[in-house]
Amino acid sequence: MDLNPDKAFSIEFQPSGLRLILDEPTTLLDAARQAGVMLRADCGGKGICGKCRIQLFSDLVDYPPSLTEESHLDHASIDAGFRLACETIAHKNIKVFIPTDSIIEGQVLQVDGRLRELNIEPSVRRISVSLQPADLKDLRSDLARIKIFLDRDDLSADLNVLRIIPRILRQNQWSADLMVLDQKIIAASAPAKEKTAGLAVDVGSTKVACYLMDLESGKLLAARGTPNPQIAYGEDIMARIAFALQSEQNAKKLQTMLFDAINRTSQTLAREAGIESTQIADVCLVGNTAMHHLFLHLPVDPLAVSPFVPAFNEVLYPKADELGITAMPGCGVYTPPVIAGFVGSDHLAFLLAEGFGEDQRTRLGIDIGTNTEIALQKGVEIVSVSTASGPAFEGAHIRFGMRAAPGAIEHVTLDNNGFAEIQVIGNQEPIGICGSGILDAVAEMRRIGMLNSRGRIVKEFMGVCLDGNGKPYIQLSQGSQPVILSQNDVDQILLAKGAIRAGIDVLMDHLKVHPEEIEEVVIAGAFGTFMLPEHAMRIGMLPELPLDKVHAAGNAAGAGARMMLISKSARARAENLAKQIRYLELTVYPEFPMFYAKGIQS
Ligand code: FES
Q1: DSSP 3-state assignment of 586?
Q2: pTM above 0.85, yes or no
Q3: Residue 477: partners with Cβ closer than 8 Å, 6 or more residues away
């Protein structure tokens, strides 16, 4: 049925990025179903279950809550834009965020990463004390008594701790559990022998990976990924920076919504682990430089204009309550250094987790995203670049592109006539194609000659279809709305892979490394896990190398954050590594345009 262009409006669902154009007012639940968004609706849309909770990013005046919504949602949630999808009627352009809890099968939000052996030596330790009671012959203060008991003359205590220690000691026969960070007592409680937990968080632009760790054993208690709700204000970092720059209120909003998502996730993790969020005694937070500045509420202006320098790139250890993170009173948030305007502490955490700087092998580390960070180590030198690869591998700017979620084509094989065999996440009807599927499709088209060396789809090739304007495309699935890949989609992929390859080539040129000298390529992130390295080489995204040299590291930034949470020496190593990494600005590298022009060829 043709849409009436005068009445047409769009609904954009995040974090999947799926969009729907309609010309009739429709409930958001129906729209989600039409768009293929797997939204929970346990009562089938009758307003009974309250499970179809979504968040609106539009003028809320247009969407006053119904009585049903008021019975399911508290005031704070309603003010924050939460509504029920079955009760909300979309009638104009609207952006809708689907929280993790409302998705039937969540987007693939990878939290796994390789964690190497390391000594468990957390920065925060619980120390139990059992003191001699004060009496008229021993008039020392409570803190002096603690220092003598522990034989630690260097100890001091936070003011909030000094306010509660006298009561805790006297109510518990002069015993207490103290949380000690370096030389400071940051929290005190009645002796409980409860677990002391820590929270490591990798704040990505698209997803936030949270890990709850036992600080004493170093064991992982629970882990979970959640979409970064800031995505409602822009899929790419620059859009969010622009939003933050509009007003102080906007910048604060981005910070608050992120910590709300982290708090909700850490509460879920704590419940799974059978503890309270207030047992979290230490937090480590990593992210790209824009995320880092937004979560620390630092000015993002310098990141918006050339030369894109960060406001600050050293370790900061603010208090959790100053930032808005729910944890033990006095808990600190360790934020490692960022490297440059577009190379953040997540890149540092990735390189730490993968042992860069610990040996002198020639290694490449790649984290593919909208900005792809690449490091090349040769001997004691480590040089990093950031390349603007764009969001094509995350499904954006591709007609049927989407993130890795149920319904996404994740793998494609073509027969010699160009007919596709596909693998779909969740084994269901395909509704789109994600990064690994897109990479497969382009590599397969190249293999069978359906794509020529100039990156053009060969119109005469069997299996190639032509649209009404005579433009070629290939059809990857059947049905009423088949998933297709057009010449424009292929162009986007070639631009993305060209930027990545140019970054690699600049690094190899700069450090005088030949491809055959590379001993290992480590690729971080979900895309690195699902992509086939041979396909990345076939389209020229990676240099030709033996396949056994290419390894997927999973969520390596998350693994690095976990290491820094449970090990003081990992923190020290990270801080040294940050000094060792040299940032190279691609745009001023004389040969960059030549490498880029070469890189975008198929
Ligand atoms: S589907 Fe149950 S309340 Fe909306």
Answers
A1: helix
A2: no
A3: 409, 420, 422, 429, 430, 483
